[in-house]
Structures are given as C-alpha cells and as structure tokens.
Amino acid sequence: MLKKTGTNSSFSLNFPSVPVIFKYLKRLDGLEKSQKHSTKTLSVMQYYQKINTIYKRSQEPGPNHNKIIYGDWSQPEFEVLKDLKWEATEKIDGTNMSFEIVTEEGPFPDETITCININGKTPAANIPGHLLKVMQEKLTPESITKVFGKQVPVEGQFEDEWKIELPWKIELFGEGYGVKIQKGGNYLKDRADFILFDVKITAVKGGKSVWLTRESCEDIAQKLGIDIVPFIGWFTLDEAIEYVRKGFKSVIAQNPDYDAEGLVLRAPCGLLTRMGERLITKIKHCDFY
Q1: 167 with 240, same domain?
Q2: CA distance linking residue 202 with residue 167, whole number of Å
Q3: What percentage of the chain has pLDDT greater than the value 90?
Q4: Above 90 in pLDDT, residue 4?
Q5: Number of structural domains, the chain?
Q6: Rounded Cα–Cα distance for residues 12 and 141 (Å)
Q7: Of 221, 275, 284, the residue nearest 77 (C-alpha)
C-alpha cells in the first residue's frame, strides 16, 4: 500500500528474505492529491544539512541589508582551509528533495520491511505534484536491491539458500528541478526531474553514517539511471569566489544562454567541523550584484 506522510510520500514494501529477496519485490504505484499528516512511518525523516553562504550577510537596515560582507567568512573553518582545493559542483536552482530508504525487521522470522520515503526540504514542504509523481517512478525495489543489496547465506539453512541484506538507511539527496520549479524551465523546458548531489549510508541502526565520495555517488547515479549534478573542478575558496563572480553558463540547462546559479563546494577528504558536520558551502552569482 502507498502511504503518505504530510507532504511527503512513503512506499511501504515487504521484502521477504529467502531464498532471494529481489524475486519477491513488487512495484507499488499510485498518487493521492490529498495528504494527511501521519507519524506511522518506520523512521524519522532526515534532512540535508543547511549549507551556509561562504560570507556572512549584513543585518544592518538599509540598502545593504542581507548583502554579503566580502571577506567576512560565515564559518571560521572556511578561512583556515581557504587555500585547500575544494570539490566544486554546479548549484541547481530548484527545491531540495531526498529519498530515504529504511529497512527494519518484520513481524515474522527472516522478514524485513523497507520503507521508501520521498522527503521535501522540511516536513511542511509542499512538493509539487508533477515532481512527486516523477520521484515515485524514479526508484524500484529491484533497482534498490541491485545497487545496495548484499547477498549473504541464511544461517542454519542449506548451503544454497541466500538472502539479500540492505543497509539500515540509505539517503539519496538531490534537487527537484525543471518546469514550474523556481526558474527551472531553463533547465528542462517541458518536465521536472530529480538530480542527485549526495549519498549517505548508515549500515546498522544506531551506527555511524558515512557520506560517499563523488566517485561512488556517480557510480550509484549511473546504476540507478539518475542524473547527478555536474562536477566543475577543484578550487581554492578564493578561486571559486572569483569564478562565480565572473559568471559561467549552466552545464545542464537546455537553454544554452542560461547562467549557472553558482557553486556548491565540499572540503577535501570529507573534512568535518568539530561538531561533526560536513564542511560545505555555497557561492551564488547573484550575491555579487
């Protein structure tokens, strides 16, 4: 059955474990326009961490209110690491979306229940109907188990009996973009889509989460048939600021004259703050004018 959670969509799927899990998976379709809030889901929805602009913004009233303060870094780590080469990808002007795939033990032995949640930026996010429909058709249980599943023998059973195990939680973060989403008609003239920018895996419940490398994200995107945000290059923060200030054309826009919104930059080697958050920032072309 297809369940809804607020403005988010949730597929609840029963994944039998033996003999081979993916043989028993079923695709569930349907889209309800009316969505009522419910907390009866297998997990608490997760959200992508807030990405700070590289510089602080003026809070003074007047014509410069909310303008960036050039040279005043929004996080102290940015100044310390500004001369390192950061991984830069094109910033897409859309709406933050994610797939959250959680696998729990079912009520019967050797049974698991996997829930595929489609989340907006917040629980109150109003996901456009045409985008939600696209995302509901984006993943299948077969593709999930093929990409993320691990075949393991069933304990206490015959040698040729196996089951497919999934990580406890898989999170695919990206942007919903295209027609009727922000200025997305420049990207896609007649449709909406989902484009991946990050993947986080939590192998076991209560365990540590791991952000995957760009190379792993590209591999997953290719296997799932999902687009991924374009890689632009490696920049120091000063180089990235100048690159965005000058402006550059979007790599993925169908409109060849469309200027990219900016860059998203990730610190090398997955560096974290002392609070355990990723070191990630954004630079927007419009902030310089």
Answers
A1: no
A2: 6
A3: 67
A4: no
A5: 2
A6: 11
A7: 275
Contacts of 198 (CB under 8 A, 6+ apart): 48, 172, 173, 174, 211, 212, 217
Structure-block tokens of residue 270: 């997955």
Residues 6+ apart with CB under 8 A from 243: 88, 232, 235, 263
Q: Where residue 99 sits, what CATH number does that domain have?
A: 3.30.470.30
Residue 35 CA to its chain's centroid (Å): 23
Residue that is last in its domain, among 228, 244, 268: 228
For residue 76 the two structure tokens come to 């102290």
* Lookup result for tokens 């996010």: 125
Residue 24: strand, helix, or coil: helix
How far is the first Cα of the chain from the last one, in angstroms, to the nearest whole number? 50
Determine contact, residues 258/279, Cβ cutoff 8 Å: no
CB count within 10 Å of CB 81 equals 17
Instruction: Give the CA distances from residue 199 to residues 52, 96, 127, in Å, rounded to whole numbers and listed in that order.
Output: 19, 14, 21
Query: What does the chain come to in residues?
Result: 289
Could you tell me the two tokens for 275? Answer: 């609070």
Do 240 and 137 sit in the same domain of this protein? no
Report how far residue 92's alpha carbon sits from residue 173's, in angstroms, rounded to the nearest whole number. Answer: 13
Q: HSE-up of 8 (CA within 13 Å, CB side)?
A: 28
DSSP 8-state secondary structure symbol assigned to residue 142: H
150-159, 226-235, 254-263, range with the lowest pLDDT: 150-159
Q: Which residues are paired to 68 by β-bridges?
A: 57
Q: What is the pTM of this model?
A: 0.83
